[in-house]
Each structure stands twice: as C-alpha cells, then as structure tokens.
Write a structure and sequence with these properties.
The complex is a heterodimer of chains A (146) and B (183).
Chain A (H helix, E strand, L loop, with lengths): L2 H7 L1 H4 L1 H27 L5 H28 L4 H25 L6 H33 L3
Chain B lengths: L2 H10 L2 H23 L4 H14 L9 H20 L34 H10 L2 H12 L4 H8 L3 H21 L5
Helix pairs in contact in B: 1-2, 2-3, 2-4, 3-4, 4-7, 6-8, 7-8
The chains are: A mainly alpha (146), B mainly alpha (183).
C-alpha cells in the first residue's frame, strides 16, 4: 500500500464539501424542526391530525440534525477552517430561524423569545470559538515559519 | 518542514499538508504494523490513518505527533491481535512483573550484532521476540523515538521501557546467536 493509496481511500473523508454538506443538513433539520415546533406551540386548538403531522415533521428534521452532528463529530470531523464556515452557517441559520419566527408567530412574547435568543447566543459563541481557534493555529503556523 | 508545522497546517484544514503528512509517516506506520503483526496488513494501516483523520482536529500538542500516531497504531494492532488470537494473545499494555523501580538502568549502546546482521535475519529474529520486547525495539531503534515517547505510547513508566529494552536486546542477541550469528 502506497501513501497515494491511503490518500485515495481517505479522499471522501478529507473532502471539505462533504463536511460542510453535513453541517448544512444538520442546521436545516434544526431550523425546520424549530420553526414547526414554534408554530405548533403558538397555534391554539390545532386538529389532532395536524399535531401528529407536525410531530412527524419535527422528528424528521431532528433526525437529520442528529445525522449531521454525528457525521461532523465522529465520521468527518471539522478542521479549523471548516469550523469557521460552519460557524457562519450557524449564524445564518439562526437569522433564518429568527426571521421565520417573526412570520410564524408574530406578536408572541415569553418563552419563544428566550428560545430564539438562546439559539442566537449559541450561534455567536460557536462562531467566536471557531475564529479564535483558527487565529491561534494561524499564529502558531507563522511562528513555525509556515 | 517540521512535523509540528505539518500538523498545525492539517488542523487548519490544508489538504496538501495532510498528503505530505501521510507521505512522511506512512512508511513508519506500515513498518510498525508489519513488524508487530508479523505480516503486512493494509486494513490495519488504513484504520490507523482513518483514526488520525478523525483525531487530528482535537490533537492538543501538535509537537507530540509521533507518540500520538504510534499510540493509535498500537491500539489498531492490539485490536487486530485480539480479533485474531483472542484466547492466546499476549497483552501489550500490562507491565511485566519484573519491571519497575529498583531495576538497574542498562547502558545505552546498540546491540553488537546490529552492524553485521542482514535485514532479513534481523526481521526474523525480531519476529521471534515476545510482543512487548519487539515493540520497544521497534519504537526505540527503528523509529528512533525517545524513551519518554515510547513510555507514552506503551502506557508504562520510562523505567519499564528501559528494562524492556534491556531484556529485548538480550533476547535479540540470544536469538541471533541461535541462528548462527556471532554476538
């Protein structure tokens, strides 16, 4: 087995596009589930079959989130640059969720606001952490003459 | 380019750096796996590199890449040995009863036979050694790793590594003498 054989077999794992695709899948599932959950929670007196349909859709969305999260933590972990891209995608996803929440549940106050705020804080923290990690690695790279 | 710089570049996500890392270390990984298993095993080598890809983003000390890599390789080899010879496999991670404090530190000189024995005979003699002794010889002499790195890889104190090396050299000398080489 040559180094090129090894690299060929690892090709899929090393593909940045695939890692980012998993992030997008996870975020899309999360935003979709959260918006449906918000609609369900703020809409009074929904028919039972509508509730069941919402529950199924939320389960599907969360399943994609679990798959994407598993992939980027266990299967194809994110490198520093991927984490920065994922951080910005997370912030964009939160913006979509916040905008969707305003449309889906206008005028609603209380705990939905807390949820939207908490997700926003989580997105910002993840992005800042990714930027710091990448900066530290870039500094170290420069120190080592790279 | 230093290993630390290569690893940092890999952690940043530079794909060409990973290719360079594989080209630099693949031979050592393959050699270790082959010597420890007594035959080449592409699946184990592949498993090692997969684990490296997964673990690299979380490696906190890029300058300690070599011991980290061999720790992964060792785990993969142990898994394969367990699968193959579950009831009789010799555990690699248990310190020997004879090792520990109080054992005199051997003088560090290469085996006298090293210079005159051909590669094939040395490989045969190495294969005849017990797994623990073979492992420390591979790591210390063939891979040129320092004692503390060997200790980290094997999960034992440095003193234990020294005593294993001492015993390994003696066993290797005996094995080569048995095969007709003068010590």
């Amino acid at each position: 087995m040559t180094p090129e054989d090894v690299l060929g077999r690892l090709d899929a794992r090393l593909s940045p596009g695939r890692r980012i695709a998993y992030v997008v899948v996870a975020l899309a599932g999360l935003v979709g589930s959260a918006l449906i959950g918000l609609l369900w929670a703020t809409e009074p007196a929904l028919p039972t079959r509508t509730g069941v349909a919402f529950a199924v859709l939320i389960a599907i969305g969360l399943s994609w989130t679990v798959v994407g999260t598993w992939a980027v933590t266990r299967r194809t972990p994110l490198f520093a640059r991927d984490r920065v891209v994922a951080g910005w995608l997370g912030l964009a996803a939160w913006a979509v969720f916040a905008g969707g929440a305003l449309i889906v549940a206008p005028g609603v106050r209380g705990w939905p606001f807390v949820v939207v705020g908490a997700l926003g804080v989580a997105a910002v923290v993840a992005l800042v952490s990714a930027l710091r990690t990448r900066s530290a690695l870039l500094r170290r790279k420069a120190e080592l003459g790279g | 380019m230093s290993d630390e710089l290569l690893v940092v570049r890999c952690q940043l996500g530079e794909r060409d750096a990973f290719a360079e890392l594989v080209r630099e270390w693949h031979g050592a990984v393959e050699r270790y796996v082959t010597r420890m298993l007594g035959r080449g095993d592409d699946d184990v080598v592949q498993e090692v590199w997969l684990a490296v890809v997964k673990g690299l983003p979380r490696l906190r000390e890029p300058e300690r890449f070599a011991p980290w890599l061999f720790t992964i390789a060792r785990r993969a080899v142990m898994n394969r040995l367990r699968e193959a010879y579950a009831p009789t496999a010799e555990p690699l991670d248990q310190p020997q009863p004879t090792s520990g404090r109080g054992i005199s530190t051997p003088v560090w000189e290469p085996p006298a036979s090293e210079a005159v024995v051909d590669r094939e005979a040395m490989a045969g003699a190495l294969a005849a050694l017990p797994a623990r002794e073979r492992e420390v010889l591979l790591l210390f002499y063939l891979e040129d790793l320092p004692l503390d790195a060997c200790a980290q890889i094997c999960g034992v104190p440095v003193g234990t590594i020294k005593s294993r090396l001492h015993r390994a050299r003696r066993l290797l000398r005996e094995e080569l003498t048995r095969e007709g080489y003068e010590a």
